[in-house]
Amino acid sequence: MSIKLLAPQLANQIAAGEVVERPASVVKELIENSIDAGASRIDVDIERGGHKRIRLRDNGKGIAKDELELALSRHATSKISNLDDLESILSLGFRGEALASISSVSRLTLTSRPREQSEAWQAHCEGREMQVKLNPAAHPDGTTIDVADLFYNTPARRKFLRTEKTEFQHIEDVFKRIALSHPSITLNLTHNDKPVRRFPAVAQDNRSRRIAAVVGKKFIDNAIYTQVDYEGITLEAWLGNEQVLRSSSDCQFSFVNGRGMRDKLILHAIRQAYESAWGVIEQPAFVVFLSVSPRDVDVNVHPAKHEVRFQQSRLVHDFICKSVLDALIDTQGELGAGPVIQDQPGHDYIRPLQSHTPTSAPYVTESARGGEASVSPSRPATSGPSARAGNRANPQSAANYQTLMTPATPETDFQASAATDYVIIDEQHRLYVKDDSLYLVSVQAMASYYLNSLFRQAGTSQPLLMPVALEDTGADDTLLQTLQSQHFQVQRMAGKLRLQQVPAGTRHLPWSSWFALLLEGAESSSELNVSGLAGHLPQSLYENVWAYLAAQSTDQQWEWISDSGKVRELSALLGLFK
Fold first, then answer.
1. Nearest C-alpha neighbor of 386 from the set 441, 454, 433
2. Which value, to the nearest 10 degrees, does the dihedral of the CA atoms of residues 389, 395, 399, 401 take?
3. Do residue 223 and residue 120 come from a single domain?
4. Which residues contact 80 (CB under 8 A, 6 or more apart)?
5. Residue 239 is part of which domain span?
6. Helices and strands of the chain, counted as H and E runs
7. What pTM was estimated for this model as a whole?
C-alpha cells in the first residue's frame, strides 16, 4: 500500500480514540474550555449517564461568529501560538483537538455570543462529514455546547460504554476534581433533570469550605492542614488522619498548577510519607495542591493530561514526601498515634531510618565532692529514653519534685524538667539527680560526644529529603574534599553550594541551619567543627542524645564540667537532702 495523507475526518476519529474515552472525558474537556474562557458559572446537564446528551452552558467570553467553524477544526486553539507558549502552559487546554474529536463521534451543536457581539450564532457539526453549518440564534453572553448521541457512528466504541450509573459516577468524579481545583467558580450538575451537585463559589483563601462541600465534613474535620514553600515550589495540603483511612483510593485528590492529576510520582511520595509516619496499609485520604513554575513541568505527555513530567522529579518527590511526613509527625500527639517504622517497607525509593528506643537511661556517676566523671550502668526507665520522675532516688515524691524550683534566688535561675531527672541551671549546664547526689553536666560536652559518635559510626552517606542550598562565596575545592571524606556530598550548582547527602544516621539533624556552620568549621581544619555544631543543637534533640548514649558501652570516660561548690550550694538551696 502506498503512503498517503489521512483524510481530516479519519484523523479526527483516530484522535477521538485518545481524547474521548467515555462521557466523563467529554465533560472534562468542555469544562476546562469554559474555565479557560474565564467563566464564573458553569452548568452541566447530563441525560442517561452521558449516553444520550451532555449539555454545558457557561458565562465566559464566548466565541466570535467568524471563529465558530475554526473552533471545530483540528489543531485550532487560542491558548498557544508558538513553541515558547508550549514550554510555559498556564491554561488547562492547549492542543486544539478536543472539540474536533468530540464532534467527529457525536452530533455537536455550539452556540456562542461574545459580549461585544450583537447577536448569537450557532454552529452545527455531525459525524464523519464534519461540515459546519452556521445559523443565527438567541443566546445570552457566553457559550452552550450540546453533545448528543455520543459514539452513534462508531458502534464498536459505543458497545464498550458501561451502564448509565457507572458512567455518571465517572462524570461525578471529574466534576468533583474540577470543583476542588477552582473554588471561585460556581458549578452545577444535573442528571436526568434532577439536580445532583451544586457548588457555590467561595473565596480562594477559603478553599477548605469547598473541600468540605466536595469531600465531606468528616474529612475536613479530620484533616491535617499544611502549607510549605521551597525554592519556587509550594505545597498546600489537607491530609486525612487515621479516622478517615479507606479501603479504596476514591478520596485521593492531587493537583498541579490547578490541573487534576493521577500522577504516579505524586501518589508515590504521599504514600511513602504515610507509610513512614504510620505504617498504614489502608488507603489514606488527602487533597494536595502543588504549585511549580510552568517552565519546570511538562503537561504534554499524556493524551488526557492526567500525568506530568517534572524537570526536577527527584526534588519534587522528596519535597512532597518530607512536607507530608513532617505534617503527619507533628500532629501524632494530637491524633494519639505514634510513628511506626516498618522493618521491610513496601518500597525501596528512600528507606526510612531504623530507630532504636533503649530501655534505660545513663546517669553520670561523679560524686558531689568532685572527681572523675563516667557513666555507670543505668537503672530501668518506666517510659521513654530517660528515667521518669517516679524513678528518682530522691525521697520526695514526683509531684513535690516539680515544685523544687520555687525557692529561686537571683544567683540561680533554674527550672525542673517534668520528663527527665535533671534541673536546667542555664543554657549551658544541667543538674542531674542520681541517688543521693547531684551532678553538674555541660550540655555542649554531652552533645559533642553524641555527634562525634554519630559521625564516626557512619560508614556511608545518606541523601537528604530536601537539599540545603547556600550562596557560593568561592569555597575552596579542598573544603569540599574534606567534607566528602566525612561522607558529606556538596555540589556546586548555578552559583550555589548544595548539601545533597550527609553521614548515614544524621539526616534528622537540622542541616538547614547547620550547613553554614559546617562550611565555616571545615575551612580552617581537616576535621569537622563538631563543638560548633553541638552549640546549636536544638533542645528537642536532647532526649535523642540521652537515648543514644544509653545504648552505648558504659565504660567510656567523659570530661564533664563539674563545680562541686556550686553543686553543694544548689543541693542545700533545693532541699533535696536532709
1. 433
2. -70
3. no
4. 86, 89, 91, 94
5. 204-335
6. 19, 24
7. 0.61
